[in-house]
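Section 5: illustrative case.
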């Protein structure tokens, strides 16, 4: 009986061959850490292909991202204190998806995508009980705009919104120019970045700093109120 995914099996074998003795010296020298830059680059190239709607480019870039996954799994398979391979990665992901979809694999009901989103946070909280904040697990390496959007979405679960940010609210005049479309938003963001550059300011760093301030506010809001017995 033939393998259900012979192309995938062949790629797994190719990665193993390149990293084995007698294979490629560069591949053999790589570590999880040294590959991070390539993983980031390949993901952004895939995003470019998706946004361009180029099927051929998507096919290639998905392969590049897949190769990174297989590369990391092969490194782990030959690292004494890690010792997991691509099958372990796949099995772990399958178990995770089954756990995250009780409306498909269990007895929970969900008729719409909103229904699913509504109970996902509870499922994730059960999986990761060590997390004490809604912000735990947010990747710090995300680009500033994506990070700000992620943090705002997480903050809402703690009852904190952008209006609770620890700085003065924007003026009514500024609010009146709020973009109505993504095209308008993109142009306004571009103009802000251009203006910042002319003034010698780093827009990416500035937004990250603002996100950190907002995160502090979220974590303060998550703290339990002081007991009345502790007030003097």
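Designed sequence:
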């Amino acid at each position: 009986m033939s393998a259900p995914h012979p192309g995938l099996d062949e790629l797994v074998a190719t990665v193993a061959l390149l990293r084995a003795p007698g294979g490629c010296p560069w591949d053999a020298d790589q570590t999880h850490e040294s590959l991070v830059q390539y993983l980031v680059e390949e993901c952004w190239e895939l995003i470019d292909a998706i946004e361009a709607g180029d099927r051929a480019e998507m096919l290639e870039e998905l392969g590049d991202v897949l190769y990174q996954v297989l590369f990391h799994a092969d490194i782990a398979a030959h690292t004494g204190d890690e010792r997991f391979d691509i099958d372990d990665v796949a099995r772990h992901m399958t178990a995770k998806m089954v756990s995250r979809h009780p409306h498909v694999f269990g007895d929970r009901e969900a008729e719409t995508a909103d229904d699913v989103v509504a109970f996902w946070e509870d499922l994730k909280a059960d999986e990761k009980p060590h997390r004490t904040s809604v912000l735990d697990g947010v990747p710090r390496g995300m680009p500033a705009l994506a990070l700000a959007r992620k943090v705002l979405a997480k903050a809402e679960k703690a009852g904190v919104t952008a209006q609770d940010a620890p700085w003065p609210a924007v003026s009514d005049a500024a609010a009146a120019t709020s973009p109505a479309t993504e095209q308008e938003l993109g142009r306004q963001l571009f103009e802000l970045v251009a203006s910042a550059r002319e003034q010698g300011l780093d827009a990416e760093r500035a937004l990250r700093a603002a996100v950190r301030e907002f995160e502090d506010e979220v974590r303060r809001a998550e703290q339990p109120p002081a007991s009345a017995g502790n007030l003097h």
